[in-house]
Design a protein that fits this description.
Blueprint lengths: L2 E4 L9 E5 L5 E5 L12 E4 L9 E5 L5 E5 L6
Antiparallel strand pairs: 1-6, 2-3, 3-4, 5-6
């Protein structure tokens, strides 16, 4: 189960990869397509200011909110 951290309400567009960057902001970058390279320049969409913690996966969910989920661990 994912935990919503910030209700950003980001509208997703086709051909873009949405993520939480190292600074804790919602950002996007254009995906590489046939014969085209990605620009590798990210565009910050929303300044969330999320503090990252070890063992969590941070992402933009289907509704456009910043969320996190506990990472799976290996066998014990």
């Amino acid at each position: 189960m994912a935990e919503v951290l910030n209700k950003c309400g980001i509208k997703r567009e086709k051909g873009w990869l949405y993520f939480i960057d190292k600074k804790g902001n919602a950002a996007r970058v254009q995906m590489a397509r046939k014969g085209k390279k990605t620009s590798k320049k990210q565009e910050v969409l929303f300044k969330c200011g999320i503090k990252r913690q070890k063992g969590w996966l941070y992402f933009i969910d289907k509704k456009g909110n910043a969320a996190r989920a506990k990472m799976a661990r290996g066998r014990k």
